[in-house]
Amino acid sequence: MTDGRTGSRFWSNALAIAYKEATVLRHDKAYLATVFSQPIMLMLLFGFALSNQPANVPWVVLDQSHTTASRRFVESVQLTGYFLAPQAVDSYDAGERVLKRGRAVAFLIIPVDFRRDLERDASHVQVLLDGTDPLSAARVGGYIAQVGASFSVARSADADPPLPPLTLRQRFRFNPTLKDSTFFLSALAGMLLTNLCLSATTLGIVGERESGTYEHILSSPTTPLEIVLGKLIPHVAICYFVLFLATIGTGLIFGLWPRGSWLGLILVTLPFTLASLSIGVFVSTLAANSAQAVFIGVFVILPSFVLSGSMFPYQLMPAGVREIGFLLPLRWYQIALRRLIERGAGLTDVAVPFVALTILFGGMLLLIRWRMKPRLA
């Protein structure tokens, strides 16, 4: 009975604070206007204005020939300086899985008869390219095609007449038409929600402190965890509204609908919004005033956009910098979004991002509890 009363009181306190926060938000016309206008502005910006360039390209190789010629061709591709060391796979399906999970940009298949066909002037290789980043995919395909041409020149230096170049058969997966807008629009919801979550909560605790109501909240029969959850719940509902606005908007205007599980999209959004909102609350507990809170919030938002992979593929970032992004909720969420929207992923394909975001949320709650005093001295 005691545990039941404690649980009932916990949710009663949290919902009471949530009602108070919802009442304040309802009368904040500037905030609501931003919520409605920002998705439209960024949707148009990402749909028509942005692009990127590849480097440090991760790729997969299926060498079915296992000859000196095939190894020399793979080495020639890597020596261009655009590619990381190749990941070798032993089957076509294994390479497809790596490509679908976003761990490689290109999948190079060298056929069994590569050396024989090379001697008969009919050699070819197949390349599957991840079209979710159109410009990078096109350029990566161009780099490999250039290697194929130079490779044919190297083997035909003494031929008269010159032998034909190595044939490169390219296929673009997930975005066959190579639209730049598909890359940016698939991560639109993540960037919108990151900006919304951090902007909405960075001033919460510090604002209460400046207005003199923070001590009143601490003196009430509530725990820091109840206070935090009460402040987050109304914003979670708004975040889901923005998610559906962005998803339906990109579908109706640009024809980009999620190919994967809608349930997966709904589920993975919850820990992401909670983690992002809790970062804003933690920033608010660190700041001494509103100006500091805004500065720290911007300091968090900008690296999130750059390092998450939303603006350009995180796989192409230098080692070290690439790993820092895994500490950001937006990194995991944009991975989930691209799998669900572009690659047609199911629930199991977003399990890792879901768990990672849940862990980040739990870690932020521990940090917030450490920063907030449970009671007045």
C-alpha termini separation: 31 Å
| Average pLDDT for all residues | 81
Helix share, percent: 55-70%
Percent strand: 5-15%
Distinct helical segment count: 16
- Gross morphology is elongated
Number of domain units: 2
- Major sheet description: 5 strands, mixed
What is this structure's SSE topology?
Blueprint: H1 2-26, H2 29-48, E1 59-63, H3 68-78, E2 87-88, H4 92-100, E3 106-110, H5 114-119, E4 124-130, H6 134-155, E5 167-173, H7 180-186, H8 188-201, H9 204-211, H10 214-219, H11 224-254, H12 262-286, H13 290-307, H14 321-324, H15 329-341, H16 351-371
Parallel strand pairs: 1-2, 1-3, 4-5
Antiparallel strand pairs: 3-4
Helix pairs in contact: 1-11, 2-7, 2-8, 2-11, 8-11, 8-12, 8-13, 8-15, 9-12, 11-12, 12-13, 12-15, 12-16, 15-16
What does this structure look like?
With 377 residues, the chain is of the alpha/beta class. The chain folds into two domains: 2-49 and 181-371, no CATH class; 59-177, abc type-2 transporter like domain (abc type-2 transporter like fold, 3-Layer(aba) Sandwich), CATH 3.40.1710. It is 64% helix and 7% strand. The protein contains 16 helices and five strands. A five-stranded mixed β-sheet has the order 2-1-3-4-5, with helices on both faces. β4 (124-130), α6 (134-155) and β5 (167-173) form a beta-alpha-beta unit. α12 runs parallel beside α16. The longest helix is centred in the middle third of the chain and has 31 residues, at 224-254. The two termini are 31 Å apart. Mean pLDDT is 81; it is low at 153-160.
